[in-house]
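Model it.
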Amino acid sequence: MAVKELKPQRGFTLIEIIAGIVVVGIITLVVTAGMGPLFKQSVNPWQQVRAAELGQSLINEILSRRFDENGSSAVGEARCGETGGPSCTTIPNDCSNTSYREEASRENFDDVDDYHCLELSGNQVADTLANDLTDDYRQFRLQVRVAVEQPDRLKRIEVTVITPQGQNIDFSAFRGNW
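Modeled.
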């Protein structure tokens, strides 16, 4: 009687399959854990672009206003601080007193000093660009400080945009009395 040769069986044992699954799981865990910080970093450029849009928009709005409440916007009239002109408004360094501000709301701000100590968040931030952008900018915050650099001549405007991740992005501009 002839003996049949048995063909070797192909495949994996249960132990080999379980070991393979464990190795693949560990590799997946290491790769995804390493990618977590990369996902956060990929959000930063988008937030920085949005912050730049907000900051530049608010700086442009402020620079379009006149230098001082007492200053004239008419051609040929003396500006505040000039001979024959009124004295310029004095603004405090801290934000505890905003009584110098004659306008109560941002819609009525007509000079650079009115923006000193302005803080915006939520829907107020979106109004800096357009009303229909509220959802895109809801978690951003804006802070404005105005400082007198050269009395009667130059004011520094500082706008800080705070992103949803808490990153501060600063913008500065100067407004001259000329």
